[in-house]
Design goal:
Elements: H1 5-18, H2 27-52, H3 56-68, H4 70-82, H5 87-98, H6 102-114, H7 125-129, H8 131-143, H9 151-160, H10 162-182, H11 186-191, H12 193-211, H13 219-243, H14 248-259, H15 265-273, H16 279-313
Helix pairs in contact: 1-12, 2-10, 2-12, 3-13, 4-5, 4-8, 5-8, 5-16, 6-14, 6-16, 8-15, 9-15, 12-16, 13-14, 13-16, 14-16
Transmembrane segments: 62-82, 94-116, 122-146, 158-177, 189-208, 220-244, 250-269, 281-305
Keywords: Membrane, Transmembrane, Transmembrane helix
InterPro entries: Sbt_1 (IPR010293)
């Protein structure tokens, strides 16, 4: 399969940043695109949820979240004892990798659309639900045995920060309105989605190029971690998706969710809850290594993994 075209916009932005081009996306446009993408994804998930919601989804949700909790618990000792990072830095990075990336999920959806592959639309719900456990575990790992945590402020930042608020709000609107109610908005929120995502990825490429410098101190280890950890997490997601009986597309999306690392909600929450952690390491690894790996290599790899496990299990 050819490379998803929107990914090439990320490569263009990355090249512009590395070559020190004067290309810049105005901050107001970036903010507007972020709001648009989050709302569009939330609306689409809400519509799918209205079409597909069943009582069995509750048990699926418990298993998906329960398995996802393993990711930061596995990442932390690797970072702490193999990478020899400080406790705060290891906990913060583990929280970033236990959390999820809405943009990676969006690219996974675009990939499946290009492949004409169906998927379970309610997986959008886990974009919201998977954010919280990893952040709480990250704080607990950082604070084990010492210090105070401003839980109220951190949880407010998680639930009422822009990303979760818009995703959850869009999902509720989509669910309440249903497919017929949202149909008049299709041209704005669904037909223009890939174009907006392409411009957003151009900016993400520029940002990722700027974050690569943050990895110098722990360069080799963090680069390796930023590649190996998402593959391990995706393997877990593939196994869980298959065991739950998800489609190939749904299995791939769950693998991509597990493999992704947050660079929107997690940095905001960790800034409040674990202020002594170095954000350059966590954001540098998540955005400078794992994000480009996932969209260039990871998503096609996870699709292959999903196809393979379904063929073996058939």
């Amino acid at each position: 399969m050819s490379l998803e075209p929107v990914v090439l916009f990320f490569v263009l932005g990355l090249a512009a940043g590395l070559l020190r081009s004067d290309l810049k996306i105005p901050g107001s446009i970036y903010d507007a695109l972020s709001i648009y993408l989050l709302l569009a994804i939330g609306l689409k998930g809400g519509v799918k949820l209205a079409e597909q919601a069943t009582p069995g989804m509750l048990l699926d949700g418990v298993l998906i979240i329960g398995a996802a909790i393993l990711i930061p618990l596995v990442a932390f000792p690797i970072l702490r004892y193999l990478g020899k990072l400080k406790r705060a830095d290891a906990a913060s990075i583990a929280a970033h990798y236990g959390s999820v990336s809405v943009v990676t999920f969006s690219i996974g959806v675009a990939f499946l659309a290009q492949a004409a592959q169906e998927y379970e639309g309610y997986l959008i719900v886990f974009l919201v639900l998977l954010e919280v456990p990893a952040l709480v575990i990250g704080v607990m790992l950082a604070r084990y045995g010492a210090g105070q945590v401003r839980w109220g402020r951190m949880l407010h930042e998680v639930f009422f920060g822009k990303s979760i608020f818009l995703l959850l709000g869009g999902m509720i609107i989509g669910y309440v309105a249903g497919p017929q109610g949202i149909a008049p908005l299709d041209n704005v929120f669904f037909d223009l989605f890939k174009g907006a995502l392409a411009i957003f990825l151009l900016e993400m490429g520029l940002v990722a190029a700027g974050r690569l410098a943050d990895l110098r101190a722990y360069g080799v280890f963090l680069i390796g971690f930023g590649i190996v950890m998402p593959i391990l997490s995706a393997s877990l997601g593939t196994a869980v998706g298959w065991m739950l009986g998800l489609s190939v597309g749904g299995t791939m999306l769950l693998a991509a969710l597990y493999a992704s690392a947050s660079y929107i909600a997690a940095p905001a929450a960790m800034r409040i809850a674990v202020p002594e952690a170095n954000p350059g390491l966590s954001i540098g690894a998540a955005l400078g290594v794992t994000f480009p790996f996932n969209i260039l290599i990871g998503i096609p790899l996870y699709y292959w993994m999903a196809q393979t496990i379904h063929q073996i299990g058939a």
